[in-house]
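User: Second chain of the day. Same drill as before.
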Amino acid sequence: MDLEQSTKIFLENDFKYMTIGEITKELQDSRLSRKGLESQVEELQKKLTDAMNGMKELKNEKRELEKELSDKS
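Assistant: Same format as last time:
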């Protein structure tokens, strides 16, 4: 049994013992999870920006149509 397997650390918050390897794996998993969340946030920010730009275009179109309508009156 190597040092990593035989070394245990007590985590007070979870009230359990974990090997260094288990802790390392959990850290890696949480980093991957965070990266996944960061990419989701970036994607949502892009969608929000696109939606806001679309709203601006619609408002401009509405103004143009209202102006055309008032010009015809």
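DSSP finds two helices and two strands in the chain.

User: Great, on to the next one.
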